[in-house]
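Hi support team,

I submitted a single chain yesterday and got back a structure, but I'm not sure I'm reading the token output correctly. Could someone confirm the output below corresponds to the sequence I sent? I've pasted both exactly as they appear in my results page.

Thanks,
R.
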Amino acid sequence: MKRRERGLSALLGKSFLLFALTLAVAAGGVYWLWSSCIDRIYSITDWEQLLADSRLKQGNYNALRAYLGNEDGFAVLTPDGESIWSSEEALGSLTQGELSCVSDYSSGSYVEAYPIQGGDGPARYRVTRYTEDGGSEEMELDSSLRVVSGGLGDGREQYTRREYAILAGMWPARASLSQFSFKNTDGEARVLLMSTAFPDEQTTYQAYQASWRVWLLLLPVSVLAGAFFAGRIRRAIRLPLDRLHDAMLAQVEGRSVRVGNCTDVRELRRIGETFDMLSDRLAESERERERLDRDRQRMIADISHDIKTPVTVIAGYADALAAGKIPPEDQPRCLEAIRSRTQALTGLVNAFHEYAKVEHPAFVLHTERTDLCEFLRVYLAGKYGEIDLAGFTLEVSIPETPLFCALDPFQFTRVLDNLLSNSLRHNRLGTLLAVSLRGGGKTAVVTVADNGSGIPPKQMQTIFEPFVVGSDARSSGGSGLGLSITRRIVALHGGTIALSAHPALGCGTEFVLTLPLL
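Hi R., thanks for writing in. Yes, this is the structure output for that exact sequence:
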């Protein structure tokens, strides 16, 4: 299955977004835990829900504990204050007087009681009851809790310490009491005594401060998320880089290790593919270097052979003449042999010089706008006598319409000389030479063919290489550099030259030159 390609920026962006989303989810979870802690700190009893619950009248009081908040409680009493059931030990039976001091939950009234500092005299207490309609009732108590003035409408003249503690909200400790009268399913009157605790500021503050420790959970979660996504990016980036590094080391050691499509990250995959291409090019260059080394060794051997033969003849005759071993009547023949071998050696050296010159990077053509049709007519007219004297027949096909090319006349003349001289040198009398020219789109095609003996098949693939001749025997004549020079000159003209595998004359040799038209 083909892996889905992705860019490095997409990988990093996606990983960053997933990391940010993970942190956001983790922060949301920690916030939820923190909120739960805060809710538990400030948890209060939903008395309305408790009073509306049918289990209250059914007497299933224990099930109603679920409504209670922190430190809140309730008790069920008879109208006389006798305890029937209590959620807390502190909430027990009350006297009729103590029960009358408890505010009625349904009336919405509440009581405030506090001591009054009367100078140097004994302590006095003020009690105020606020009603739902905004009214109030006040009374003052002396140090013995006797009513000095006012009253709460109950006609009482004195209160007990516990009754005052209930009015002042000091019993139970840090809580306020309220009562609610109801009837159970049997129709019996009951009183629900509800104790609502006042939050202690110090305790609440400490619990609130402790709740912030929940946020410390975000640190390990962030570290784990960072480690996960860092590992994810590492797997996507580090592994292909390690593979590329191993391939480079193998390349240094002369081994070939392909990186290939080692990852689905686009940029890294391209680097791997480029490295494989570079490795292939290096291997190809190494093969080319080895081939050039073999060609150079062969070239040196061929040069040595081509130079050794005439030099040996010249040296032999020169030594014989110097030693007086050749009679006077034979000396002209020896001198002629020396002269002919010297000419052959000079031609060979000139061929080497021309080959080295055209292969040099500094070699340039001096081209000019030339009508190729007229150029061939003039050239072949000048060669006609030589061709006829050699016993060859010339057949020419050149169009009347001008075909203009950028030619270096001197160098292109050398191209034609090399091709015609090969035909004249390697074929017998009566051979037909055919030179044709035709225009084809943006190119001109020149064909030089003969119906002679042709080139052996095994030489056809290498005929344009240096020191390759069209015969198995190097003694057949020629340096083997002419066609190499020809190919180089044609290439500098922007054209190509090839040996046709199917000559138009049916046999022999056919060279096809292609030149760009202006």
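A quick pointer for reading it: The first helix runs from residue 8 to 41. Let us know if anything else looks off.

Best,
Support desk
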